[in-house]
Amino acid sequence: MAGFELISDEGYRFDGRKPSELRRVRCNMGVFTQADGSAYIEQGNTKVLAAIYGPHEASNNMRSKVCLDKCFINCEFSQAMFSSAERKKRSRGDRKGKDMSAHIKQTFEAAIRTQLYPRSQIDIYLQVLHSDGSLYCACVNAATLALIDAGIAMKDYVCACSASLTKETSLIDINHVEELAGCAEFSAAIMPKLDQIIYSELNGRIHQDELGQLVDAVTSGCKDIFAVIDRFVRGRLEETASYFTHS
Amino acid sequence: MAKVMLGESEKWFIIHGIQDDMRNDGRSCEDYRHIEVETGVVSNTHGSSRLRLGSSELLVGVKVELGSPDPKAPTEGLIHFHVDCSPNADPSFQGRGGEDLSANISCILTRIYCNKSSIDLNTLGIIPHKQCWVVHVDVLILECGGNLLDAVSVAVKAALHNTGVPNIQVTDGDEGTQEISLPDDPNDVKFINTINAPVLVTISKVGSRHVVDASAEEELCCNASLVMGVTKRGRTTGMRKMGGGSLDPESIPEMIGTGKNIGRQLHISLDKLLKTEQGMAEDIEKAGYL
User: Fold this and answer.
1) How far is Cα B120 from Cα B114, in angstroms, rounded to an integer?
2) How far is CA A149 from CA A153, A154, A156, in A?
3) Strand, helix or coil at B226?
4) How far away is chain A from the Cα of B88, in angstroms, using its nearest Cα?
5) Which of A166, A240, B131, B174 could bridge to B127 as Cys pair (CB 3.0-4.6 Å)?
6) Other C-beta atoms lying within 10 Å of the C-beta of residue B34
């Protein structure tokens, strides 16, 4: 297992958080002017930009994937070369990137009301500026905000969180060092109000009895993230609405 | 969608406006749009900068690592440029779509920086023939709003100015080999000297006049432009004509003269900003995208 302690004797993680604490979440919507919707989220040191184009007519090379009764979602995940500690040689199109793109596409196919946009295409582009663990989760949260900014109809928010299990305590929102420590890592994307899990992934080995604890930890982490994001979106909406009501 | 499309009448409107020294956003032919530069925004790089020019947005990260020098220049370090066009800027950059543009821009950057005068590469050498610093400059294009080359060059200069190369100690180890040791203090760095770093100025010919800093719409109306690398003292380090149209040989010296003046002014403003930023406190929160 890990050479150093993930949880100190006083119960703190190595970055000073308690096991059930999220990292600081800061976000912003409407970052770009040219995309139909855009958002930026920071979860601790993980920084992700999301841009949405659509719904629009299918582009030339994707014309074969058009569906008559619902829209087709195209997702691409890319990491900046300076995002990780060691410089990455290939920013997108490598196996990990394609894998991540496919997972995020699957997540949002479940959440977006695709029947409202037949024969169209929605593009979700994610750009990681700085990666420090929980990449999938930060990407999903950023994409949710960007979809809200673009005005695309969804069934509910999609909030994602990750958790790990060590010494019978679950750690929520793991960062890069905790990911490398070798414990099992569980990420899930949840629709908080409907209380449904739309994507989950477990890496590593845990005992069947511990699974329940891990799922509960992730669900509570997602609900916390939902609280932060919801508060931000409502605040932004009030601010925009106030521009229309002043005489 | 991000692609700009103009009808014939719109193009003529822009061309006629420029003949009368009036551009769509009220600028004169030699004015730049509002430029915002911020350095030190990405924490796990040795130097970084974020730039916004009109509606173009870029992020540059510089990382240095140890490597072996080129046998033809054993005492010099190496600089590599890489440009990545993010699909955020345009859906057509998805997958390998942006590779043509990236290759073009990185070639131009390499051309203006890899000469004797731009950056003194001897300061990046450590042990001749064996070890040197390799500087990787990664440009990430997040939004394309016209005039990408100028924006990229200014951002690269700002990022290089902000880059701190660790101070290395070379000691003699056993058996005649030399050992290098890195400092423990992460702030023990030597900043790269960018006094002679050039900046690109694109002068586009629209109708019979030329404009500086063409926006995306204006770029569609111009079919020939001149890109020049200009240093702080007004010297040219490289020049290239772009576009499918033709340039009148008599107008070229005039365009070069304009380019030099504008380049000089751009350097003065950028240096003033970089100096102010250096003087600011270390723990001021960088706004970034928030």
Assistant:
1) 10
2) 11, 12, 14
3) strand
4) 5
5) B131
6) 7
Contact partners, residue A167, CB within 8 Å, separation at least 6: A6, A7
ipTM: 0.88
Tokens 């569980």 appear where? A186
What's at B117, amino acid-wise? S
Q: Pull the structure tokens for residue A183.
A: 């414990």
Q: Give pLDDT tens digits along chain B (290 positions).
A: 356 788 999 999 999 999 988 898 888 888 899 999 999 888 889 999 999 998 899 999 999 999 988 888 888 889 999 999 999 998 888 888 889 999 999 999 998 887 777 888 888 888 888 889 999 999 999 999 889 999 999 999 999 998 988 888 888 776 767 777 888 887 788 888 888 899 999 999 988 888 999 998 999 888 899 999 999 988 888 889 988 888 888 889 999 999 999 999 999 999 999 888 887 766 566 667 77
Beta strands in A154-237 (DSSP E): 159-166, 169-172, 185-191, 196-203
Nearby residues of A95 by Cβ (< 8 Å), 6 or more positions away: none
CB B158 within 8 A of CB B227: no
- Burial class of A10 by CB neighbour count within 10 A (0 to 12, 13 to 18, 19+): exposed
- Do the beta carbons of residue B171 and residue B178 sit within 8 Å? yes
Integer Cα distance of A117 and A245 in angstroms: 31
Residue among B125, B138, B151 nearest B44 (CA): B138
User: Do the chains contact at B2 and A26, CB–CB below 8 Å?
Assistant: no
Q: Distance between CA A118 and CA A68 in Å, rounded?
A: 6
Please report residues of B whose CB lies closer than 8 A to that of A82.
Answer: 42, 44-45, 48, 61-63, 138
Q: Please tell me which of the candidates B55, B96, B289 has its beta carbon nearest to residue A33.
A: B55
